[in-house]
Amino acid sequence: MRALGGALLGRRARLRWVHLILGGALLMPYWLLGTLVVAPFRNGDGLFAGDLVVQFGAYGVALPLAAVSALFPLARPMSVAVARTLCGVPAERFADGPARSWAARVRTAGWFTLHTGVGGLVAGMSLAVPPFAVTLMALPFSAALRRSAAAGFWSLDQRWLVYGGVPAGLATLAALAAVAAGAGALLAQQAPPLLGPTPADRLVAAERRAADLAVRNRLARELHDSVGHALSAVTLQAGAARTVLDSDPEFVREALTAIEETTRRTVGELDAVLGLLRQGEDDGELPGRPGLEALEALLAAAGRPVSLTVRGGDPARVPEAVSREAYRIVQEGLTNAARHAGDEPVSLTIERDEETLEIVMENPLPARPPVARPGGGRGLRGVGERARLLGGTAGARPVDGVWRLEARLPAGARGEGVR
């Protein structure tokens, strides 16, 4: 009995009942318009003549009108907002935003017609049945009521109602609650297929998630390359300064200056990336990102000897996007060498022709394989991703006792469209 009472009058059932009555209220203007159409065909009876033919005829006219009005795109978010609150259906099963496709609009129209149609019937019952039930339950206790016009209106002059009025009235109220609960459950069952996302909505949501993931991955690469390189360079400079602290104060001063410049530059880049994360959006550009024009400063702060060989044209005179990604690739190569090759020298060759920019970095392999970091590094994978996004290639492998990082990037018009 307790479970049955909860199903008929529990919080969820009451909310759904309110939802149905709201549907009846939404149907009312359409129903009034329908009576203007139907009433002239019934000897000109007015709107409130009580003629069931007029009332149900107006109901039949109102439903198509409601369906047509729900074809507007904004009908779906309005219906979803109400159903999400009152139907007891998980919020993630509803679609977000206006209905853009005709399939979504037709589904919304179907939902609105079902909501207003069933809601109109339940709302009408909710207005008529409680007075009827109260009259039934009061009949055994009032002879005057049994002789009144109210009893005559309800056709309640049967003598047996004197003894069965209370049970009949309670049964009528219980039936109303059962009908409302059943209608509410029907709407809750139909809400996901009618107000849920269409295949087009799912495709848009998937594209949005893919775009968000791409932005997060790009920001993660920026943080990895910038902060990772800075920490490696600072570690090398600090270690070298500690070694010659007493014997070469001038070198220590230079190392501390390099550490200061590296950290200041990295903090600026970190602020830019974190600013984008705080805004929750990305316009395709990361302000303050350095390119190959800052290559000399990068090599000077590397904390190790780096020999640079440039062939062909000026490597800085490539498309801006290529210059920025090339800088990051060199930065990751220096970071990787700092982690795995100790103080060994690094050679960097940059060759540019009309179509490509080729980067080759080499450093001696360590005597012992480096200890893998927990979770593994993602820097070389990020190098490959950067090159592929530009339409180029990149890879790293041991060759003749050295570790070689190679990248080929488009330096012509193709790279200019990448941001």
From TrEMBL:
Q: GO molecular function: any one?
A: phosphorelay sensor kinase activity
Q: Which reaction does it catalyse?
A: ATP + protein L-histidine = ADP + protein N-phospho-L-histidine
The stretch of residues making up the signal peptide is none
Listed GO CC annotations: membrane
Name of the top EC class for this enzyme: transferase
The answer to keyword Endoplasmic reticulum applying to this record is: no
Domain Signal transduction histidine kinase subgroup 3 dimerisation and phosphoacceptor: residue ranges: 216-281
Keywords noted in UniProt? ATP-binding, Kinase, Membrane, Nucleotide-binding, Phosphoprotein, Transferase, Transmembrane, Transmembrane helix, Two-component regulatory system
The EC number(s) this enzyme carries: 2.7.13.3
Where do the TM regions start and end? 20-41, 53-75, 117-141, 161-188
A family per Pfam: HisKA_3
Concerning PANTHER family, the annotation shows: NITRATE/NITRITE SENSOR PROTEIN NARX-RELATED (PTHR24421), NITRATE_NITRITE SENSOR PROTEIN NARQ (PTHR24421:SF10)
What's this protein's name? histidine kinase
| Species | Streptomyces ficellus
High-level lineage: Bacteria, Bacillati, Actinomycetota, Actinomycetes, Kitasatosporales
